[in-house]
Design a protein that fits this description.
The protein is mainly alpha-helical. InterPro entries: MFS, MFS_dom, MFS_trans_sf.
Length: 460
């Protein structure tokens, strides 16, 4: 596997050949240890969200509230993820990855206890939103860490592994959540996640070093008198306005490629919410633990999509294809595979709750999740490679944008489907997915044509 290969040396002159790259300061064991830790945090970030889903109907009954209020516990969690990720990106770019991660994990422990002790739905929604704010740090800071440790030509595969590991929560989160809540009540899921995050915090503190590239280059220069190859390229970080990354949305090199990420996230979240609320009702009438088991094939689909998308992105980046000359070329395989999302959404929307066998809508959701997950590694690899110095902020923007749109849409799923029904709703999502893919392809083509014209002019 290419993560065991030595990082590519960026040497362009005799003088540079004497300098060690920052990517070579970590031996293979250190890289694998760091990757193991951030993948564990990726698993937890999704686990924290999914472990609660099978217990949603029981939570609504316990608080004696409406389905709309129950869905708010999900949408406000996603809204917290969206808003806070911009903050974590800016803070980790300035203070470093490790102190920000530790602070967020410590606070997450207390927010989990707050969810467990909530006396009513309103307090519970507040603590769920707070949980979302804090858990987003584990993903945003981890994405920045990958950009710190792995070079551009191997980054797509690592992002694929990272997101593939997060899909393991789809295998374990709902299954554990459904079983635990059925045996001990829905509140017990938050005790379980609190214990889990405490263990992850201890392991992280003991085994993961600071990886921020500026801080590492300064450490080598000040403490060891060694100048790394990236030393002159690394600028002293400045604390920026957390909302400043939103300015990147004006860039034609970012927004067209964020849209497919948003479409993939909408496909996953909308299908998951519909699956949870529908499968406990006729014609299925499944128990909480049975609903949790339905997420296993979804987790497998997410894992396969992430790994395949990451491997193909790096394959294009390392080969001498004409499209490989531009950074955007690595996104093409994932965008092509994302077309399966359209088929999956249509199949899911027009069969969920209408056919007696759950296997048919579940197949549609598997296709939708697989397609949506294939685009993420290539797009994240492109963004962090193009904006290396602000990789944390750019990653946080991508994360925030996805979850902000998802939180808004999830809030209106129940009333919208009540009016237009599930078939037309998911058809709209399929059209949105197709449109975002076309926009991304057009942007890549324009970039490729522009570079070709520049080469021809330089030859003349």
């Amino acid at each position: 596997m290419s993560i065991l290969y030595n990082s590519q040396k960026y040497t362009t002159s005799v003088e540079e050949k004497k300098l060690q790259s920052i990517y070579e300061t970590y031996d293979q064991f250190q890289k694998l240890l760091i990757l193991f830790n951030i993948c564990a945090l990726a698993i937890f970030s999704v686990f924290d969200e999914l472990v609660y889903l099978p217990a949603l109907p029981e939570t609504i009954k316990d608080f004696n509230t409406t389905e709309t209020m129950g869905l708010l516990t999900i949408s406000m969690y996603l809204f917290g993820l969206a808003l806070s990720s911009l903050l974590w990106g800016a803070l980790s770019d300035y203070y470093g990855r490790k102190p920000i991660m530790i602070f967020a994990l410590v606070c997450l422990i207390f927010s989990g206890l707050g969810c467990y002790l909530s006396p009513n739905i309103y307090v519970f929604i507040i603590f769920r939103a707070l949980q979302g704010c804090l858990v987003s740090a584990s993903v945003v800071v981890a994405q920045g860490t990958i950009a710190d440790v792995y070079d551009q030509n191997h980054r797509g595969e690592i992002y694929g592994i990272f997101y593939g590991c997060s899909s393991l929560s789809g295998l374990t989160g709902p299954v554990f959540g459904g079983e635990i809540s059925q045996r001990y009540g829905w509140r017990s899921t938050f005790i379980f996640t609190t214990i889990l995050v405490t263990v992850l915090l201890i392991i992280y503190v003991l085994s993961v070093p600071e990886t921020h590239q500026y801080m590492v280059t300064r450490k080598y220069l000040d403490e060891k008198g060694v100048k790394l190859l990236e030393c002159d390229q690394s600028q002293e970080p400045k604390l920026i306005n957390p909302c400043l990354p939103l300015c990147y949305l004006n860039h034609c090199s970012i927004l067209p490629y964020l849209l497919p990420l948003v479409a993939g996230m909408l496909a996953f979240k909308c299908c998951s919410v519909m699956l949870t609320t529908t499968m406990s009702l006729p014609p299925y009438s499944l128990s909480e633990s049975a609903v949790g088991m339905l997420y296993i094939p979804l987790g497998i689909a997410y894992l396969l999509g992430s790994v395949v998308g990451g491997d193909l992105a790096d394959y294009v980046a390392r080969r001498s294809f004409r499209i490989s000359k531009i950074l955007e070329g690595r996104m093409i395989p994932g965008l092509l595979l994302s077309l399966t999302t359209i088929i999956g959404l249509l199949l899911f929307g027009w069969t969920i709750g209408k056919v007696p066998h759950a296997i048919i809508p579940l197949t549609g959701q598997v296709l939708a999740v697989f397609g949506g997950s294939t685009t993420r590694p290539g797009i994240l690899s492109y963004l962090t490679s193009k904006y290396q110095e602000n990789s944390g902020s750019v990653s946080s923007l991508a994360y925030s944008f996805q979850y902000l749109v998802a939180s808004i849409v999830v809030s209106f799923i129940a009333p919208t489907i009540e009016i237009i029904h599930s078939g037309p709703f998911f058809t709209i999502l399929a059209i949105v997915s197709l449109s975002t893919t076309i926009i991304a392809f057009v942007s890549i083509y324009e970039k490729f044509r522009s570079d070709q014209n520049s080469e021809m002019q330089s030859l003349l």
